[in-house]
Design goal:
The protein is mostly helical. The chain has two domains: about 120 residues, Tetratricopeptide repeat domain (Serine Threonine Protein Phosphatase 5, Tetratricopeptide repeat, Alpha Horseshoe); about 90 residues, Tetratricopeptide repeat domain (Serine Threonine Protein Phosphatase 5, Tetratricopeptide repeat, Alpha Horseshoe), CATH 1.25.40. It has eleven helices and no strands.
Amino acid sequence: DDIAIGSACFNLGLLYQDQDRLSEAEEKYLEALRIFVAVQGERSENAPCVQMNLGLIYDNQGRVDDALRMHKRALRVSRRVYGDGHQHVADALSNVGGCLKKKGQPERAMAKYEEAHEMFVGLHGEEHEDVAEVLGNMALVLGNQGRGAEGLAMQEKALDIKRRTFGSDDRDIAQPLLSLGKSYVNQGMLDEALARYEEGLGIVRRIHPERNATEA
């Protein structure tokens, strides 16, 4: 076993994952993880990235329990290797929160998201895409808890950060707008929903003009 071989396996896993060849990616990631732990021990600094990517694959496959287990491992190792306040720890907290949300555990999910949010702000300040992303996830939890008004305010805050970060006509703005439109519908605020839907759809059409030609 050699770290260079583990790194090669990890890079192959990344390639397969980008190509949506998830079973092959999982195989390479597991091999990389085995090598890293065998050579460097349980506190291998290379392990958390592999564990996070495995968690994302399992989540994509609907294997939420497996994803949660792997993200928890990534969080535990990241804390030991890097300490709190590190990007890897914040990412792992957010990933654990996402799995807990899917498992119908909103209180536990919110606790992880709040901890991740605090770390992201400490790392990057308020005006950063990671901060906006976790705020959006927190807003969805609030909505699921029947706290729709609070969730809407948080979604708007997340959207404002993304506008300032990416610009108002970026692809990363379209999905939050459409999600916000749905939240306004759920609150019976149809005029606000229509405005968000139209803005989001307009961005999609400008980014993908070929779709308009096909639809025409």
